[in-house]
Structures are given as C-alpha cells and as structure tokens.
C-alpha cells in the first residue's frame, strides 16, 4: 500500500497526539540522551548516571550533570520542529503533546501543557521530604573548547529538612508520575493520529505509547532520520529530522508558511 500522505492524515485528524524524545531537541543543540556526553561524563553511560543509586553515591557528580544539562537548555532555543508542534496544536484543538524530554523547549515554543513522562530539569525537589526546591539562580558556565569540564556541583540542601535536593526527573528504576502516565494513556486511547518524533523507543513504559495508540486504532507516523524499535508499529515512516519534516507537514496540511 503506498504510504498514506502524512499531511492529509494531519489535515483530516480530529484528535492528535505528538509523542517526542530527545531527537526533538537535537536541532536546538541539546544532545540526545544516547549521545556521548562531553567532559567529565564522557566515560559514563547516561543510563548509569540517571539512577537514584548514582545520586546517592555521587550527589555532586549527578547534580553537576543535570545542572550542566539545564544550562545547555537555557542557552538553547526551540527549533522549527517545536514551532510546528505548537502550530499543530493551534490547528487541531484536541492535540496532546507527550514528551520524554526534561527540557522546556515545547513550552517555550508555545505548547500549552506538554505531559512530561520523565519529569523536568526545572522542578528540583528534596530527595527526602519531596519538598519542591527552586532551580539554582546560576548555572555552570559553558566549558571552553579545550578545558576539561570539572562538572561536580554539590546539590543544595532542602530548606525544610536539610537533605540534598535532587533533579525533578524520573530515573531508571523509578516509577513514572502517575498523573502524567494516566493523562498520557487517556490521550492516546482517544486519538486518531499519533506522531512519534525523535525517540529510539527503547525505554519503557514510555515506549509503550505508540503501541497503545496503534492498538486503539490510531494511525502512527514516525519522524526519525534513523530506523528505530518503533519502525515495527509505524504505519508511515518519515525518514528525516524534526525541524525538516514537521514544518513541511504543517505547510502541506494547512498552507502555513
Ligand atoms: C520503571 C529522564 C519500574 C532522566 C529517562 C532494570 C532495572 C530497572 C528498570 C529497568 C531495568 N530493565 C528495564 C527497566 C525498565 C527501564 C527501561 O526501560 N530500561 C531500558 C534501558 C531497557 N525503565 C525504567 O526504569 C522506568 N521506570 O520501569 O520503573 C518500576 C515499577 C514499579 C515500581 C518501581 C519501578 C523509568 C525510565 C525513565 C528513565 N529516565 N529520562 C534524564 O533525562 O536524565 S529516559 C531517557 O532515555 C529519555 O527520557 C528517553 O525516554 C530515553 C531514551 O531517550 P530518547 O528520547 O529516545 O533519546 P535517544 O537518545 O535514545 O534517541 C534519540 C532518537 O532521536 C534517535 O532515534 C535518533 O535517531 C533520533 N534523532 C536524532 N536527531 C534527530 C532525531 N530525530 C528527529 N530529529 C532529529 N534532529
Ligand atoms: Zn526535605
């Protein structure tokens, strides 16, 4: 069957879900989760740093990594892909954005209330009493081209109980926030079109999202320059990047330029 035209599917859709991963932010200069990390963290597998055990063992190393990533995000700007997602929301009121990303680029592009399945760099909280803590006023300066980024930053202490403040993200081995997961599942059950953009589809239960959409009868369109685990569930596979493909889809669906 010829690949159905994704722009036509988009124009005719009543309820759209846009499910995004790190590839969504790649063209904003934010490294994807799997990309080798620079400096101090280059020798670590992100999956070993993004755990409660790593934070308990080396709080300054892990907190420094997240503060470096938050600084990168603050220096970044939403790309044309983020803007196209916000345009889809403007054209199709019943659009839900579900992201695995911990950056705030969807929000800064105008997406109203993206569902953050894996939390956010901007909502640190106490590692013991869960009290929300303000993100630090300053962030690490960008490392010069040749200097080795030290990267260790001792986390602040909770104003209430004095325990270390932790990043407001979901680590491996931790449950996803129940309200986020139930809101995402509800949105997916009812949608007729789901875009999966810039994710390798390897981390669960988030990676279930496109499969739940397909089982509920939605058409699944993948946007990714590489093959992924989600090729198996995609009805339409658009081999390209978020900032190239999505604006073109929106333009062909509604004539936006
Ligand atoms: C849970 C936040 C259970 C933090 C993330 C053993 C022990 C414990 C758990 C497990 C285990 N084995 C399996 C598990 C389950 C585990 C899991 O799935 N592991 C995987 C590795 C097999 N999952 C969990 O632990 C989850 N929790 O299971 O809890 C439980 C149950 C009951 C009670 C208690 C506990 C929690 C997982 C959440 C982890 N946190 N992020 C942080 O950011 O630091 S995951 C993180 O990696 C991302 O959020 C994302 O979800 C995931 C993968 O990243 P992607 O977004 O896909 O990015 P990636 O780099 O992989 O790929 C980028 C893609 O973009 C590529 O395809 C590339 O081609 C494409 N791309 C590149 N450029 C572009 C592009 N696309 C478009 N345009 C471009 N320009
Ligand atoms: Zn506390």
Written description of the protein model:
The protein is 34% helix and 11% strand. The model has no long low-confidence stretch (mean pLDDT 92). The protein has one domain: Rossmann fold, CATH 3.40.50.1220. The strands form 2 sheets. The protein has a 6-stranded parallel sheet with strand order 3-2-1-6-7-8, with helices on both faces. Helix 1 packs across helix 10 and helix 8 packs parallel to helix 9. It contains 10 helices and 8 strands. By secondary structure, the protein is an alpha/beta fold. The site of zinc ion has 8 residues, from loops.
Uncertain ranges? none
The largest pleated sheet is described as:
6 strands, parallel
Mean pLDDT: 92
Strand arrangement, major sheet: 3-2-1-6-7-8
Proportion of residues in helical segments: 25-40%
Name given to the CATH homologous superfamily: TPP-binding domain
Would you count the extended β strands for me?
8
């Amino acid at each position: 069957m010829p690949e159905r035209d994704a722009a036509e599917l988009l124009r005719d859709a009543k309820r759209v879900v846009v499910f995004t991963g790190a590839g969504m932010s790649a063209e904003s200069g934010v490294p994807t989760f799997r990309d080798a990390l620079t400096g101090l963290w280059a020798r670590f597998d992100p999956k070993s740093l993004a755990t409660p055990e790593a934070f308990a063992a080396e709080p300054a190393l892990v907190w420094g990594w997240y503060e470096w990533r938050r600084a990168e995000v603050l220096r970044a700007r939403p790309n044309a892909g983020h803007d196209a997602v916000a345009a889809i929301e403007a054209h199709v009121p019943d659009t839900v954005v579900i992201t695995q990303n911990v950056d705030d680029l969807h929000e800064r592009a105008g997406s109203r209330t993206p569902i953050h399945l894996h939390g956010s760099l901007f909502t640190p909280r106490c590692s013991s009493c869960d009290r929300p803590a303000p993100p630090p006023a300053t962030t690490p300066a960008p490392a010069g081209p040749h200097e080795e980024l030290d990267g260790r930053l001792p986390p602040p202490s909770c104003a209430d109980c004095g325990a270390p403040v932790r990043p407001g993200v979901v680590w491996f081995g931790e449950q996803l926030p129940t309200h986020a997961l139930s809101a995402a599942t509800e949105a997916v059950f009812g949608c007729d079109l789901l875009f999966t953009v810039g994710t390798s589809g390897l981390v669960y239960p988030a990676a279930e999202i496109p499969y739940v959409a397909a089982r509920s009868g939605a058409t699944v369109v993948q946007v990714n320059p590489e093959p992924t685990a989600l090729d198996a569930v995609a009805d339409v596979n658009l081999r390209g990047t978020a900032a190239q493909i999505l604006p073109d889809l929106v333009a062909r669906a509604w004539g936006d330029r």
